[in-house]
């Protein structure tokens, strides 16, 4: 039978991710919950993965245990339902940025699929951090989800933006000219399960059985953008080819995370060594450390 995390382990997670987290993330319960979420990712993706005697926990279960283990957070346990309700509402309104990556012909775009089998396909994108610029967020998220650095190709003025339900703003920068033989692989763990090139005419007509709900709202504007900038309509392939998969996960693979010399040279703080992201690989790809 699986066991719950020990007090010692909870103390370590609380100290590493909450106590040593950035001060600006502790100014409200909603921001603090992002630190708790990072601790939960670490627990699930690394601790449980390497110790099968431990029980896998939902974020709510993990949060309750972590709060009960802390003298500071324990008084908030009684308000757990409201905390999660407020956190969900808060997250749903955080602006999102990413990129529509097109190949050299502008006939195919790169999509990623989430980790769960029920996940939708989408353009690589993610939520903005506090005070983060849209283009910086887009570069970071694309790098994390695909392993590809778009910083040299991204133009700040070239983007498509939609606000859904008058609440959530999504800005996707149009990045053109990426070779279709480019190597892609996510730098995150258990977030992306597949990366594929899709023909745009296929997205318009629809690929049977694929969930493209997060892609469809951008297609009309993208088609207009391509026609405006390249003065030619998309070619139509009468014999529609299936998506070209360029990376897929092997779910049984375990990944060990260690603090590398690169991280030491960059003086990465413990809370930033979130094992949701291979931090050293991101830093190297961005050229921050050499």
From TrEMBL:
GO CC entries: cytoplasm
Main location: cytoplasm
One Gene Ontology term of the molecular function aspect: 5'-(N(7)-methylguanosine 5'-triphospho)-[mRNA] hydrolase activity
Cofactors demanded by this protein: Mn(2+)
Keyword Magnesium appears in the UniProt entry: no
Family, as annotated: Belongs to the Nudix hydrolase family. DCP2 subfamily.
Full protein name: Nudix hydrolase domain-containing protein
Organism for this UniProt entry: Brassica campestris
């Amino acid at each position: 039978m699986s066991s719950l995390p020990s007090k010692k382990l909870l103390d370590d997670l609380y100290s590493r991710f909450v106590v040593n987290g950035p001060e600006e993330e502790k100014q409200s319960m909603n921001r603090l919950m992002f630190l708790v979420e990072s601790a939960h990712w670490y627990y699930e993706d690394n601790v449980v993965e390497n110790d099968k005697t431990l029980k896998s926990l939902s974020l709510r279960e993990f949060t309750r245990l972590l709060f009960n283990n802390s003298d500071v957070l324990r008084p908030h346990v009684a308000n757990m339902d409201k905390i999660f309700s407020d956190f969900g509402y808060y997250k749903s309104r955080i602006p999102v940025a990413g990129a529509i990556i097109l190949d050299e012909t502008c006939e195919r775009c790169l999509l990623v699929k989430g980790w769960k089998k029920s996940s939708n396909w989408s353009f690589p994108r993610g939520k903005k951090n506090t005070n983060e610029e849209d283009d910086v967020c887009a570069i970071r998220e694309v790098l994390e989800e695909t392993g590809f650095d778009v910083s040299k190709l991204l133009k700040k003025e070239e983007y498509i933006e939609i606000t859904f339900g008058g609440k959530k703003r999504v800005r996707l920068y149009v990045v053109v000219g990426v070779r279709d033989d480019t190597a892609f692989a996510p730098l995150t763990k258990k977030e992306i399960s597949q990366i594929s090139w899709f023909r745009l005419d296929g997205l318009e007509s629809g690929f049977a059985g694929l969930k493209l709900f997060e892609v469809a709202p951008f297609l009309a504007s993208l088609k207009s953008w391509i026609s405006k900038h390249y003065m030619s309509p998309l070619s139509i392939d009468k014999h529609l080819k299936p998506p070209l998969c360029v990376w897929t996960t092997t779910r049984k693979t375990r990944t060990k995370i260690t603090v590398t010399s690169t991280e030491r040279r960059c003086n990465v703080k413990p809370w930033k060594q979130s094992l949701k992201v291979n931090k050293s690989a991101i830093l190297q790809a961005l050229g921050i450390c050499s």
